[in-house]
Amino acid sequence: MKDGDGGPLLEVNDLVVDYRRGQTTFRALKGVSMTIGPGECVGLVGESGSGKSTLGKAILGLAAVTSGTIGFAGQDITRARGAARRRLAADIQVVFQDPYGSLDPTMTIGQILAEPLTASGAPREEARAAVAEMLEHVRLPSDAVTRYPSEFSGGQRQRIAIARALVRRPRLIVCDEPVSALDLTTQSAVIDLFIDIQRETGVSYLFVSHDLGVVRRICHRISVMYQGEIVESGDNERITRDPEHPYTRRLLLASPVADPVRQAERRRTWLGLRVG
Length: 276
Ligand code: ADP
Ligand code: MG
Description:
38% of the residues lie in helices and 24% in strands.
């Protein structure tokens, strides 16, 4: 895999992550492999505790890898730390679930968005221009720069978090349950924003969610995780039309659909259930 040869941007190969639990170890990832191409959105879906965040953390350098490799743009980043990891921060960013905990309440939006740039040595004028552009990207008014996080709603704060992730023009954003704390209407608007931003910037997403209904709206491909393993992956269309793994079928039945007749039909054929 070399940068620019048309290969994947991210390539995770047979990744194992163990956590220490007192005297024992717990294997959170049991040999996970996946790729994400430039401009691609890959969904990672599975129930709570299945290991989704652990994979995101390993990519971000926040979880220690036991074995396996993580390649990014042709480079082995599995154990990148220190200066190498700080350089990667320009290319790999993150948006977390919690729109209330992730923004420093004592900083203005302008300071929050400029900080990743000025910290890496960008001139203030350049940072100011980039901040204005990012606010436009996430559809927030330009006067947001002088205001504080507490003046914004949950959905607006998530837009700010997205702008902060975008400001260094990364190539990959790990989105860990980024809409899970939002009400349905806000969720829908923020998903649309993720889609628009991808179209406008060509950034790639690893989009983590416990909700298959969310990932199927935004992702090109979907990987289904169950107890530390990817049990099924494929194109969005194929996974949602014709899931192979029983666990994927369960997830699909648990996600709300627009067509109740089709859902009832699925229940019958997948689970052998009679639906009255
Ligand atoms: P998900 O994001 O799918 O809910 P996680 O990746 O957060 O799952 O967690 C996977 C498993 O690893 C869970 O059983 C969780 O309890 C465990 N786990 C996560 N982080 C740690 C940690 N720092 N130490 C020990 N166990 C952990
Ligand atoms: Mg998680």
